């Protein structure tokens, strides 16, 4: 689905309750066709500076508790055309007075009508907004991976939701010294910021409140959000969001290197070879790339991704793009300044340690068996297991690797059936994701942080990376015939929706009988807490074909084993952040109480 990430096909999917229709949106008519069998024939419309868009209404059904109005394919940036290796540009006025069809996923229009409007906008209440950032390792993915129509339809409080696409793979993240000199690093993250700015400028037209935006993401989407939380702490501009939900990801949970890290340079050369641009002078590389067909760029990106996928040393990732930091780094010669302001001026862990991040309410968490999706299935021996981690994090010592090969989690986390060899990596991955919770410690000087663990099992009798997605969305396609998972989704989705809608960012106002306490790190010195987290779906195995319903939600304290696992990675976080030295991490641990 890389093609969806291409800027010329970028669009915005906006969904909200039928509540808005009752407040007077102008109406059009939709002709009958197989495509529209599940849609209402009365169509909502919205007037934007770039034109008028006519959407459609998804009717209430077993899938949607309430009708949902949908506008698809609304552009938030200009068609990139031959400027596809450039930063996104704001969407220009397409044609005031024209009406565009907004029911198709693709870019473009089907038909248009004159704009109509009934109730003045100022007479409608403004609704909370949630923006979803998709995952995919910065190499794949698309905005519709999460069913945000369902998320909105099952929420008690009315709200507006936005899905969108951004450039991924070589189109969005192509780190190298050449790219840095061109000022073209982290284009995918800049697309995301373009979208957030578009939301600020336009969401009121959809009934949303630009002052009450929650940004939510899974995996690479959560990593992205972490970068934005740090970036806007430095920016003089008003942050475009006030709350965040990070599922299985954070900037402290994966490598962030300089653009001239040896790994990136090798992968850049391999991409050029795959694209047929080998041997071109550096000054001409991007001129050649801009002339290539999109399919060639996408295919070359796939070739490099496939080579490194299993080792998790993935290509095409966000990198440090601060000019001063790069010029002073021992990893790189001085890079010429560009007109592009830095988005990641230093190692993310340095930003956390210095307190350079927004103090906003956060939900963050992980799944019990995150590592099963990443440790290679053919790692059958101790040597293969150690080789995997040695390749992933070269600075790990033999003693470190011995600890990684320690016993599997205690019975509270253990599964009932034997797991494949790849599951041996599940504890390290879980702890690594959890490190974000300590960096964003919910202390007395910070906004609240709510930490969760998703425990309902599916394939391999494990709670794998991303398994929580349909429960958060309350996606009834997945919940059918699974009463226990329906209860888990009722609770989990209810808390996410409550957090989005609540004036005080509380996950406890709607949904669930168990109060979710704010997280207080057990590593916060004299202010240390018990590390209480919310566990969703423990004991449920319906997604794996079982019959056990388990418990929808319960609050638990971190076990000593969990603390040790988190401590292991937190003390070595400098190794995976690109510094290559273990001792650096002592600083954030000692100062955790003020983060």
Describe the structure.
- Belongs to the type-B carboxylesterase/lipase family.
- Residues 120-389 form the Carboxylesterase type B domain.
- The protein is an alpha/beta fold.
- It has two domains: 2-253, Rossmann fold (3-Layer(aba) Sandwich); 361-594, 3-Layer(aba) Sandwich (Rossmann fold), CATH 3.40.50.1820.
- The chain has 20 helices and 16 strands.
- It starts with a helix and ends in a 5-residue tail after the last helix.
CATH topology of the largest domain: Rossmann fold
Low-confidence stretches: 1-11, 16-38, 106-118, 325-339, 408-427, 584-595
Largest sheet: 11 strands, mixed
For the record, the CATH architecture of the largest domain stands as: 3-Layer(aba) Sandwich
Please, what is the average pLDDT? 78
Domain Carboxylesterase type B: 120-389
EC number: 3.1.1.-
Region (Disordered): 400-426
Organism: Chaetomium globosum (strain ATCC 6205 / CBS 148.51 / DSM 1962 / NBRC 6347 / NRRL 1970)
Which features does this protein show?
about 600 residues; Rossmann fold; three-stranded mixed β-sheet; 16 strands; about 30% helix; about 15% strand; globular
